[in-house]
């Protein structure tokens, strides 16, 4: 479902005399349906950069990223938008939302974008919000004023609203209490069972050991540090 091959990336610091920083060389990995692969490597090794290239936010310098058979490197932005709508989900570390949109709609939005009936979309959103212990009195409010942990749980609910066949998870259990962490691990396990291909960054080692089938150390793709 995800196939990365011979991927490289440099950052050019335009505000600092155009300094070019090579951050990735020859990155390669695959994630099969129903599999969860964890990215490891020290801070700064390039885990987030690799994830953002797959998501289509960072441009790759060279190489190939195929998500459900679609080439992401050099893709037209419309292709990326289409891929994200139906195929590729992403739970980032922080929730970014349009202000004033109620939480229930924030979570239902991916389903509404796929033309699911509004009532069914909101039902699914409510089910996830309840499961993630967001009090019902908050559902009608914008999550912009929520606590960090509440925002993260809204983000996770949104990330699991649609059954995206491919899912990117950036520290989904960070800063969650034990009960909510358990809920998130359960959601990940359910997604794997229905065949979702998952690529994740988990600093929570116990969570990683529980849900990941394999680990890929990105240090092997860091220029000058290759094993
Ligand atoms: N937008 C950017 N502009 C310039 N350099 C960047 C940018 N984003 C990341 N980098 C550099 O790329 C390298 C890899 O960073 P990245 O955030 O991918 O590491 P990471 O493995 O996810 O680290 P962490 O575990 O600390 O989140 C670092 O040296 C970082 O400074």
Automatic annotation (TrEMBL):
The keyword Nucleotide-binding applies. Residues 2-226 form the ABC transporter domain. Keywords: ATP-binding, Lyase, Nucleotide-binding. Belongs to the ABC transporter superfamily. Pfam families: ABC_tran. This is Phosphonate C-P lyase system protein PhnL. GO terms for molecular function: ATP binding; ATP hydrolysis activity; lyase activity.
